[in-house]
Design a protein that fits this description.
The relative contact order is 0.09. This protein has 18 helices and 10 strands. The chain is mainly alpha-helical. It has a 3-stranded antiparallel beta sheet with strand order 3-2-7. Strands 4-5-6 form a 3-stranded antiparallel beta sheet, with no helix packed on it. The chain has a two-stranded antiparallel ribbon with strand order 1-10. The chain folds into 3 domains: 295 residues, no CATH class; 45 residues, no CATH class; 94 residues, no CATH class. The termini are far apart. Strand 2 and strand 3 form a beta hairpin.
């Protein structure tokens, strides 16, 4: 009996169009020297005037974006400020962390998500993000995806494509078309390209790029820079005035004019004896040259606002720290919006297609998350943790090290510990305590718990504190201070134990006690010091009674 024929399910793109798998491998939009997709660019910015710029933008509005795209490229090459701000916006998103969330907890969905994670870790995607974000400037970007088959698995290779190699239908300016080598337009193969749009304003792709705003700013700034250059060339040089007599011939006048003109560049000239040249100083120019700089700076600030939403990222702005924080918040909002839009584009045009090639159509697909990890105020975290740890909260040290970006100490490493200068301690530490003076040295590394002393034999602690070991330092200290709740002081005891372990001398131990509890008042601090000394005595580290003089 013959097996029933099985057919592979149809793979659809995000718009419901069937994807032809055989069309997904190989390059179809590469540039060609002899074809219509030439890598050689024109330079419509040369000799640009307001009238010409308006014509170029109208051509783009009608679907012929060739000169507009070339102009946008030229502005990035010639305007350092625009290149800086648009590059800042693109890089701020391109370098963000990318995480992958599985579609569900199903093992197969987890395996799919891991496949995408492995691809991201190979940096193939990270290297292409900057090019994909070219859509911020020009209004759209096109990235060809070449699904290369290796060992029965597809691996996407992302290739940036010149936006000039694409056109938009004049009857539907939202649908991109591929320009063939012969100059004809043909529909894009579904699933073959990443078509990216992150609009600066609502509307058609060719009217939503930041380059349209930058073009006007660049044009007006170019006029100002030209005038500024002419002014700088002549500023400070005297006006040369040539005088000729009443009987001077036309040839004499031409000779005098050439002499006056040549003095400016050559600083040398000869004239007949009957002629005279005067130099009139231009000392009345004053600070008018600042007008050129102010105008250029003002235009740059407008471009910064359009691209970054503020100016403090690139320009010195009056307002201090508060203003800088507000501007950073604005930039972060834009960054977050760009990242979310980019993640949605990659999910639509890359992840869905790739997963279907490997696993077939699915109800849900893994999602990309692009963004910064939650920023935590480390100082506030430390301030909040310290009192909770003092009260017995158990915290994983490795988690805290990870939060602060600190590595696990290596065996034998020199460890940094909090230390302070020795502070004199009063002779009577606690009026109710018989501990008055504790001379001597504390040995490093001696264990605290389990050391038997005569004081431990004074009474069974288990009867007073059920469940507490006879050699537990907290219980021993509770017995010494005659307090009611040993567990309540576990956090403080832990700190005192660590100080005892680390201290090299009694003076250092006292200093550590004072530095370790800086927020205690004088009465509480005296009790803490008494607790420390009693712990030392109760655990056998120091025999207080034997040393009491």
């Amino acid at each position: 009996m013959a097996k029933p024929m099985t057919t592979k399910p149809t793979i659809l793109d995000a718009f419901g169009r069937p994807i032809r798998v055989e069309k997904l491998s190989g390059e179809v939009a590469a540039p060609t020297i002899g074809g219509a997709r030439s890598p050689i660019s024109g330079y419509p910015a040369d000799g640009l005037t307001p009238v010409t710029l308006a014509t170029i933008l109208r051509e783009a509005d009608a679907g012929d974006a060739l000169r507009y795209l070339e102009l946008a490229e030229t502005i990035e090459e010639r305007d350092a400020h625009y290149l800086g701000v648009i590059g800042t916006r693109r890089r701020s998103v391109a370098q963000l962390d990318i995480s992958v969330e599985a579609a569900s907890e199903d093992p197969e969905d987890e395996a799919i998500a891991q496949m995408v994670r492995d691809y991201i870790e190979s940096d193939e995607l990270a290297a292409a993000l900057f090019d994909i974000l070219d859509c911020l400037s020009k209004g759209y970007s096109m990235t060809e995806v070449d699904y290369q088959l290796s060992e029965g698995q597809y691996q996407p290779k992302l290739l940036w494509r010149d936006p000039r190699s694409f056109r938009f239908l004049r009857t539907d300016l939202a649908t991109p078309m591929l320009l063939t080598e012969g100059g004809q337009q043909e529909p894009l193969d579904p699933g073959k390209f990443i078509f990216a749009q992150i609009k600066a304003k609502s509307g058609l792709a060719l009217r939503s790029g930041l380059a349209r705003v930058a073009a006007w700013g660049w044009l007006f700034k170019a006029y100002t820079q030209r005038d500024w250059a002419i002014f700088s060339q002549t500023y400070g040089q005297p006006v040369r005035l040539g005088r000729f007599g009443a009987g001077a011939t036309e040839a004499d006048k031409q000779t005098l004019f050439r002499a006056v003109a040549n003095i400016g560049g050559d600083c040398a000239a000869i004239i007949p004896e009957s002629m005279m040249i005067e130099f009139i100083e231009s000392g009345n120019v004053g600070a008018s040259h600042l007008l050129y700089k102010d105008r250029c700076d003002w235009i740059d600030q407008q471009i910064s606002k359009a691209v970054l939403g503020q100016t403090s990222t690139t320009d010195a702005v009056v307002g201090g720290l508060g203003s800088g924080k507000e501007h950073r918040a604005v930039q972060k909002d834009i960054e977050t919006a760009d990242a979310r839009a980019l993640a949605a584009i990659l999910y639509r045009d890359l992840i869905r297609v790739w997963v279907q090639l490997e696993y077939g159509p699915r109800k849900a697909y893994p999602r990309l998350r692009i963004g910064r990890a939650d920023e935590v105020d480390l100082k506030s975290l430390a301030d909040a943790l310290a009192p909770m740890i003092d009260r017995g909260l158990e915290v994983d040290a490795s988690e805290i090290r990870a939060r602060f970006g600190l590595a696990e100490p290596k065996p034998g490493a020199r460890l940094l510990r909090g230390q302070s200068a020795a502070v004199p301690v009063a002779e009577v530490i606690d009026p109710n305590s018989k501990i008055k003076r504790i001379p001597g040295e504390i040995k490093r590394g001696e264990p605290l718990a389990g050391v038997q002393t005569a004081r431990q034999a004074e009474g069974p602690l288990a009867g007073v504190f059920p469940g507490v070991s006879e050699t537990d330092p907290a219980a021993l200290l509770a017995d010494q201070l005659e307090v009611e709740a040993a567990p309540a002081m576990a956090g403080m005891i832990g700190q005192i134990e660590a100080m005892l372990q680390a201290a090299g001398s009694l003076a250092e131990f006292r200093s550590m006690l004072l530095a370790g509890f800086p927020k205690l008042d004088s009465e509480a601090l005296a009790q803490a010091i008494a607790m420390g000394m009693s712990t030392a005595d109760a655990t056998g580290r120091i025999d207080v009674e034997a040393s009491d003089g």
